[in-house]
């Protein structure tokens, strides 16, 4: 326990007394730092991160970077930013996303249907990182169980509740 | 020799023993008193793991900013009970080709060892099953049974991981027992007696008269050495190579299940308490109330029964054990051996020499 990390130069580890005493001294200091940290956690129960989930469901605080299912970011007017470029579909390792393009009245390419298969999703966040327009995000709604497989194939652009997170 | 004590200050008998001696003739009263003492000790052995399992879980959880068990009872108070019931109902399996007798003997030995060590520990001046003149020797001899249990478990399991775990543990416990014995020897040398009760009684006076302070500076060093070697002797983290889950799948306990595993588990916790009790006895004044040289405060502290002080100090030491376990990373096996043979053994021999020197020069009175 008084041994610091092994160095590449092995002669230092088998060095004479001066080195050994030095290493013991450094080791003891670093151990004391560790002891201080853990004792700090013990003495300050407010720093506990565990949440009593089903009981505190109403007051549950999720960390901002918590990743649950994919949602579409919507602006104040309820418009999404997706241009149906399909980058997210290519980025997805599991074939979770299918972006079907459509056309507006003037023949311009717009989003036709955004299919998100929660069944296959591993919540890896690659699609969100790839999206050049910030159109999608990982939401915080994590209670996703359903009785029907079909209920887990979602059409994102038709959803109203999934706003920005 | 310990200085003569005022006879009334620390009587050996307590009211229960006196009561029985008043109603029964000598052979019968001795028998009854002995039985009562053993029953009391059994209660300690049975209740200590329950307290310690709960404490271990809660304390380790809070060291890591978690909550620990919260569901079974208030803050998980009933969790040890639930664990116990679960372990009782689990099937006891014996691997094919295992040595049946040794396989089932092994879990009993560590539990026996911890029980034997507790018999000589003075919980209070009148709570001690027996006060042996060579109590320290007895403690060292009895705790040797632990190694047997671990080695036999590893050998009898007919499993390479168990055997590796057992051998590692045998080497570790044997090595650190030398340090442990040397530190005990140091206290025996300083206090001039090997009886645990007398060792406590040589620490009378203020807190500065406890052996941790009385042997200036080096007493604290010896106490730290005692804590380190006890941790290693107990196979607790950071020295838990024996059951390093990531390497040995549980070490010598790999093949044990149900109640035979529970015996190892129980022995581990009782041993932890026994080690803490020994540290308390040797260095922290045992059952003596702490005195600071302030008349009013000392009177108040001295009014608390010694047995409470004993348990308070012991659980303080146990908190240290837990603190170490949940803070320090596990060293490699060779680092562990290097720590014992290259660092701790020389330091302890030096401490022993210094103790003799201090005693010879009359700098500390025994």
Largest sheet of chain A: 3 strands, antiparallel
Number of helices of chain B: 15
CATH class category label of the largest domain in chain A: Alpha Beta
Strand content of chain B: under 5%
Strand order of the largest sheet of chain A: 2-3-5
Report the span from N to C terminus of chain A: 46 Å
CATH architecture field of the largest domain in chain A: 2-Layer Sandwich
Global mean pLDDT of chain B: 85
Helicity level of chain A, as a percent range? 10-25%
Which descriptor suits the 3D outline of chain B?
Answer: globular
First-residue to last-residue Cα separation of chain B:
7 Å
Relative helix content of chain B: 55-70%
User: Which geometry of chain A do the CA atoms define?
Assistant: elongated
Low-confidence stretches of chain A: 8-16
Mean of the pLDDT scores of chain A?
83
Structural account:
The complex is a heterodimer of chains A (165) and B (366). Chain A has 165 residues and is α+β, with helices and mostly antiparallel strands. Chain A has two domains: 10-46; 60-158, Alpha-Beta Plaits (2-Layer Sandwich). Chain A contains three helices and five strands. The two termini of chain A are 46 Å apart. In chain B, α2 (26-63) packs across α12 and α10 (218-233) runs antiparallel to α15. With 366 residues, chain B is mainly α. Chain B folds into two domains: 13-89, no CATH class; 90-360, no CATH class. The A-B interface holds A 1-3, 20, 24, 31, 34-35, 37-39, 41-42, 45, 47-50, 52 and B 59, 61-67, 70, 228, 238-239, 323-324, 326-328, 331, 335, 338-339, 342-343.
């Amino acid at each position: 326990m008084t041994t610091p990390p092994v160095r590449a130069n092995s002669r230092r580890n088998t060095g004479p007394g001066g080195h050994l005493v030095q290493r013991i001294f450094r080791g003891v200091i670093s151990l004391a730092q560790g002891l201080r940290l853990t004792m700090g956690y013990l003495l300050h129960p407010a720093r506990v991160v565990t949440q009593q989930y089903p009981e505190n469901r109403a007051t549950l605080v999720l960390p901002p970077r918590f990743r649950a299912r994919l949602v579409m970011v919507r602006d104040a007017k309820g418009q999404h930013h997706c241009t149906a470029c399909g980058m997210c579909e290519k980025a997805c390792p599991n074939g979770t996303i299918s972006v079907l393009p459509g056309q507006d009245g003037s023949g311009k390419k717009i989003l036709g249907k955004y299919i998100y298969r929660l069944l296959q999703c591993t919540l890896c966040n690659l699609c969100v990182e790839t999206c050049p327009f910030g159109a999608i995000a990982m939401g915080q709604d994590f209670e996703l169980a359903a009785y029907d497989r079909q209920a887990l194939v979602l059409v994102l652009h038709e959803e109203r509740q999934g706003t920005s997170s | 020799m310990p200085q003569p004590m005022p006879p009334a200050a620390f009587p050996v008998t307590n009211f229960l023993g006196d009561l029985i001696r008043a109603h029964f003739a000598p052979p019968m009263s001795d028998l009854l008193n002995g039985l009562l003492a053993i029953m009391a000790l059994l209660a300690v052995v049975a209740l200590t793991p329950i307290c310690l399992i709960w404490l271990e879980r809660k304390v380790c959880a809070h060291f890591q900013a978690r909550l620990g068990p919260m569901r079974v009872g208030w803050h998980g108070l009933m969790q040890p009970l639930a664990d116990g019931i679960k372990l009782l109902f689990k099937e006891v399996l014996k691997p094919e080709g295992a040595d049946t007798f040794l396989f089932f003997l092994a879990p009993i030995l560590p539990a026996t060892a911890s029980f034997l060590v507790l018999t000589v520990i003075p919980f209070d001046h009148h709570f001690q099953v027996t006060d042996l003149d060579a109590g320290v020797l007895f403690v060292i001899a009895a705790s040797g049974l632990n190694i047997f249990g671990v080695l036999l478990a590893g050998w009898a399991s007919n499993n390479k991981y168990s055997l590796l775990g057992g051998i590692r543990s045998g080497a570790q416990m044997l090595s650190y027992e030398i340090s442990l014995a040397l530190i005990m020897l140091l206290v025996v040398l300083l206090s001039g007696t090997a009886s645990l009760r007398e060792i406590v009684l040589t620490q009378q006076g203020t807190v500065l008269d406890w052996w941790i302070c009385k042997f200036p500076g080096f007493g604290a060093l010896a106490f730290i050495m005692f804590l380190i070697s006890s941790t290693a002797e107990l196979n607790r983290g950071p020295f838990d190579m024996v059951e390093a889950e990531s390497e040995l799948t549980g070490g010598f306990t790999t093949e044990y299940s149900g109640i035979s595993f529970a015996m190892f588990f129980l022995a581990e916790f009782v041993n932890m308490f026994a080690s803490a009790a020994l540290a308390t006895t040797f260095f922290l004044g045992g059952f003596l109330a702490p005195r600071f040289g302030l008349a009013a405060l000392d009177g108040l502290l001295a009014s608390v029964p010694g047995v409470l002080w004993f348990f308070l100090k012991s659980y303080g030491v146990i908190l240290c054990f837990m603190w170490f376990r949940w803070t320090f990373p596990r060293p490699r096996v060779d680092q562990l051996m290097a720590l014992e043979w290259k660092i701790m053994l020389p330091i302890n021999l030096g401490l022993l020499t210094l103790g003799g020197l201090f005693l010879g020069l009359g700098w500390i009175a025994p």
